[in-house]
Design goal:
With about 230 residues, this protein is of the alpha/beta class. Strands 5-4-3-6-7-10-11-12 form an eight-stranded mixed β-sheet. The chain has a two-stranded antiparallel sheet with strand order 1-2. It starts with a strand and ends in an 11-residue tail after the last helix.
Length: about 230
């Protein structure tokens, strides 16, 4: 067990835990894979196309501060055979993929970072999700999994840039399983510059996902890669 400086509770030691990333060939999946590999985790990049996943894994393994043996590529089902599984697929494929992998994700800590957003001539906007949020949809589709929500507001551009040493942002972690949220908080806090901050129950994930539309608007207006900091903790 380790104590994080800003926490009043002990968070788990996640050293040595493996991380599978469904949709790991996309921008967010690649970026998270790179940073978590730099933090010392074994990463399995998942994709519907195992060859594409393997190519992405080779690219990440060749990047600075990554042990080449710590990143591999596989199909999405194989990527579920890890300690923690991050769902980083586009919203349009979210329900179908998780329905296909319900059995493979049983008993896993699942981290949903999907943002259901639409785009039109006026910019990004949050989509209405019948379950309330992508994370709640994941919880419904994965009744045997320990579903959490996190990593919604982290810039894929910054994550994947080896010249950026610190990812100076807080990651809101939501979920109903406090042991699982603690694992994900510790996972996030292991990335240089990040803090994993408990953000409430899974029922509150909708407004966290929707806030991404506001951050995209900030980025477009100010030509930046904005993140969040929670003051007072």
């Amino acid at each position: 067990m380790v104590v994080m400086a800003f926490e009043d509770v002990r968070l788990p030691d996640v050293t040595g835990m493996s991380v599978g990333i469904l949709g790991g060939t996309g921008p967010q999946g690649r970026g998270l894979g790179y940073r978590l590999a730099r933090a010392g985790h074994r990463i399995v990049i998942g994709s519907r196309d195992a060859d594409k996943a393997a190519a992405t894994a080779r690219e990440l393994a060749a990047m600075p501060r990554v042990e080449s043996a710590s990143v591999e590529g596989a199909d999405n089902r194989t990527a579920c055979d890890t300690d923690i599984v991050i769902v980083a697929v586009p919203w349009t494929g979210h329900e179908r993929l998780l329905t296909e992998l319900t059995d493979a994700l049983a008993d896993r800590v699942v981290v949903d970072c999907v943002n259901p957003l639409g785009f039109d001539e006026r910019g990004p906007y949050a989509l209405t999700v019948p379950d309330g949020s992508a994370a709640q949809q994941a919880a419904r589709l994965l009744p045997g999994s320990r579903v959490t929500a996190a990593f919604h507001h982290v810039s894929a551009v910054l994550l994947a840039d080896p010249e950026v040493d610190l990812i100076a942002t807080d990651v809101l972690v939501l979920g109903d399983d406090r042991e699982a949220t603690g694992i994900v908080q510790a996972l996030a806090t292991g990335v240089d510059g990040m803090r994993g901050v408990f953000g409430g129950r899974l029922r509150n994930a909708g407004q966290v996902e929707a806030l991404t539309a506001n951050l995209i608007a900030v980025n477009r207006r100010y030509k930046t890669h904005s993140g969040l900091r929670v003051t007072g903790v």
